[in-house]
Amino acid sequence: MDNPFKKILHNEELPEVLKDKVLNDVAMIKLSIDVADLFVVKYPNVIADLIGGGSSNKKDKED
After folding, report:
1. How far apart are the C-alpha atoms of 43 and 47, rounded to whole Å?
2. What's the pLDDT tens digit per position in 36-48?
């Protein structure tokens, strides 16, 4: 497999295909982080609030 970065340096311009691939990879990483945040942080907090009767919110409102 050829090194795509050697082609960039040789042509001194980024091929559109490589640019699209990098942007798609970054978008997939961002989506993965958002999904992990939803299920690892936010979902357990919602369940804890439902089970606890929302007592953590009442404490915040009283202060």
Report:
1. 6
2. 998 888 888 888 8
